[in-house]
Structure to design on (349 residues):
């Protein structure tokens, strides 16, 4: 049976986060939910190993696409997630306690919960106890490389459900002016153990998109459609990345390479192009000037297990109304690098 975990985008100012309980004292910590990484990391300023925790000689050093990074010591500790009698309590969970950070990787939260595959959960052997030594990132990466079981894998191995997940999200940015934490659009669910039995959260049949590698949630993006106009996407990928697109809940936008983004923008009307470009340059648009009913949907054509799958992003999802303030709107599109599309929250929404 699936376990529903309430999530909110207010904890992190846009990205979704959940509350977990850590250690013998069940310290509540808010962690970002990230399908683009695999480690469970906690801010060392918010949690320090204590009674019942076991330190190890393993350390992790992880960087993210926004340039932020952390280095931390791996411990084994108790981690609970979920509420009430359905909560899942895992003793001996792997968690890295970050003692060194760069560019604020956790934002206003207490850490990050990676939801991707074990290949991204790499750790390095250090000369001694990693928490006592608190070795710098350069020293950590000189150690023997190994991988550790991510939190989801540990849940499955402990018989606490499968390692499959579902996400129910509705926004890419916090909706302002409608009740904050009480606004249902700023809330959502992390479903641990699947999601097919949560029939109240979806309509229609499931579609299966091929995951190209057990690393990130790697997909093969074959085309982007603006209304009825299709733009083919090159199959080539960045070096070291197994496909040309990943699904990343830690990204508030649809991030496309400059060549693909320019081709997509060209399919909009001149007035629409001007509004998109203004927003992407940092100038929010008056929501009353958008007329979303006149905007085309964006469709992503992905390789599926039984033929191509077409997933449609509505104008109200690639535009975020009432962000950054009530009455304004921000485009959830951004420019990345050629060869990799990062399909973020607009797709999940």
């Amino acid at each position: 049976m699936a376990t529903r975990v309430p999530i909110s985008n207010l904890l992190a100012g846009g990205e979704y986060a959940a509350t977990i309980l850590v250690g013998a004292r069940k310290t509540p910590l808010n962690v970002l939910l990230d399908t683009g990484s695999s480690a469970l990391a906690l801010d060392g300023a918010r949690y320090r190993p204590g009674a019942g925790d076991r330190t190890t000689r393993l350390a992790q050093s992880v960087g993210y696409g926004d340039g932020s990074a952390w280095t931390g010591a791996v411990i084994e500790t108790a981690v609970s997630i979920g509420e009430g009698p359905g909560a899942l309590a895992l003793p001996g969970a792997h968690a890295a306690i970050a003692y060194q950070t760069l560019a604020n990787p956790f934002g206003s939260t207490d850490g990050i919960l990676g939801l991707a595959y074990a290949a991204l959960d790499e750790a390095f052997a250090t000369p001694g106890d990693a928490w006592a030594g608190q070795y710098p990132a350069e020293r950590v990466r000189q150690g023997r490389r190994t991988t550790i079981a991510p939190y989801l894998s540990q849940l499955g191995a402990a018989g606490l459900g499968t390692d499959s997940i579902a996400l129910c999200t509705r926004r890419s940015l916090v909706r302002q002016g409608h009740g904050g934490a009480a606004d249902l659009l700023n809330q959502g669910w992390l479903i641990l153990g699947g999601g097919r039995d949560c029939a109240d959260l979806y309509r229609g049949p499931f579609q299966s998109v091929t995951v190209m590698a057990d690393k990130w949630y790697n997909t093969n993006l074959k085309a982007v459609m603006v209304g009825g106009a299709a733009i083919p996407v090159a199959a080539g990928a960045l070096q070291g990345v197994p496909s040309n697109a990943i699904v990343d809940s830690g990204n508030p936008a649809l991030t496309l390479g400059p060549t693909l983004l320019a081709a997509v923008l060209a399919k909009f009307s001149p007035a629409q192009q001007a509004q998109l470009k203004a927003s992407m340059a940092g100038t929010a648009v008056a929501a009353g000037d958008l007329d979303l009913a006149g905007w085309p949907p964006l469709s992503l054509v992905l390789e599926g297990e039984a033929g191509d799958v077409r997933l449609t992003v509505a104008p109200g999802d690639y535009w975020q109304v009432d962000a950054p303030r009530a009455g304004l709107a921000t485009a959830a599109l951004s420019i990345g690098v050629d060869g990799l599309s990062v399909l973020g929250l607009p797709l999940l929404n």
Notes: The two ends are 24 Å apart (CA to CA).
